[in-house]
Task: structure prediction
Amino acid sequence: MTSPATAAGRKTPLLETGAAWLLALLWISPLAYAFWAAFHPAEFATRFDLTAPLTLGNFAKAWTYAPFPRHLLNTIILVTMVLAAQFVLCTLAAYAFARFDFAGRDLAFGLVLVQLLVMPEVLIVENYMIMSRLGLVDTILGIGLPYMASAFGIFLLRQTFKTVPRELEDAARVEGCNFIGVLLRVYVPLAKPTYLAYGLVSVSYHWNNFLWPLIVTNSVNTRPLTVGLAIFGAPESGVDWAVISAGTLLAVAPLLVTFLLFQRQFIQSFMHAGIK
Amino acid sequence: MRHVYGWLLLTPAAILLIAFTHYPAAATLLDSLFTTGTVVRPSRFVGLANYAALADDPIFWQVLRNNAWFALGTIPTAIAIALVMALWVNTRLPARALVRMAYFTPTILPMIAVANIWLFFYTPQIGLIDQFRAMFGAASHNWLGDPSTVLGATMVMVVWKEAGFFMIFYLAALQSLPPELEEAGRIEGASRWTFFWRVTFPLLMPTTLFVLVNATINSFKLVDHLFILTKGGPDNASSLLLYYIYQVAFSFFETSYAATLTSVLLALLATLALLQFALLEKRVHYR
Result:
């Protein structure tokens, strides 16, 4: 992405550089403001004074006002569970679509793609009824289950598996691998970049997902960070601004830090997943 | 044997997809033809009566109108900004990685967190926007409390959140353009402006169409911000179709009517999918 070959040949005119920076500053300012408010006493939330004292008090308050550790744990369980299930289910289904000629394959693939359009959050009414029949309301499994068979994941992996040369598969078969052995030794290792890309997109999606978790949960023990944050930050909770900013940062910190550390992988993953 | 293996591999995913996508979609259409059952009065078949009620429901028409304005207001703006961002980030810009990070960061933040921050910007008097305006002597304004500004206020935030995401698609497309084109343009003496409108922009058309259709589909699912900023108010001025479905189903407990509204949403999404299909066909001819 930074190789000189891909960068345009001309230097950016000074005026445009300034404009690009100005836009960048504008784009990052809401987050920068949240940092300002969170690390300063409440009376400085609207007064920008470089001599304002720094404090961690807002974080301490946010930590005690809402059960953040529990919400964080729920989110981590949810994201891990969904991702693990997606990897297994999507790998198997993608392998079937990419390499097996079975009756009704094209129709089945078309039916899978329907989910790209009709995501589970569109069907909140019926899915809630299904979950209550299954006894899964207010469970973390209930939040994750509708997303585990992901059309997007199946589609991405199928595209990748299709690019694997048949000769590699034949070689593995000569070595004595059965069809699962071929999948695990040939296809999965070659699709690593796709798994990384899909994994990052999936984790950020489920870390941030709100509507369905809100509907299907009703206790602290299952609510993920986004739902906890929405209750905590609601104006009627009467918590002051600095504390809400601190709580907001607490909720986004793990994902934000990961993003800042692996910025290039993130952006490349979103690109990789987006253009397929 | 390949038939058996194929279906065996597909079965686990197929069961979940049928259980949480196909079955509920079909059940939605079916439920929209019945009344909401209660303990004393079981649900009964009413044909299209729910749809007749929907046609007479002014809130339904309002949220549909809001959805249309929301899509019209956010998507072209976000796409234009995204394109400019991508063009900038694709040049030899000093501190390019930092600029790209700044543009992209809103994309990975949860909408709930973002709305928490923006809520304060829009707060009358003490909010940042009003304070900024006060420096120029403007009167305080209740951005989220005034039906004429509330939808616009939510749209500004959504544009900010989405532009960096769309930028990614343009960036990918720009990087796949052959560098010889720019070389040729320079030899021909084309100005950057001409080069962009005559060469780059037409070549990016498939990306623009792709982003356009996906963004439109996505605009029907973007409702998280309403839970924090406005609760759909005042007077449903900022409410959107999916948020109304949520209210009808989980605040008013009118399940059948919620299913009717969901059926309309499904029909809209299906129309968009067909449109996308048609556009993608064109894209092949274009190349």
User: Anything to note?
Assistant: Residues 1-9 of chain A have pLDDT under 50 and may be disordered.
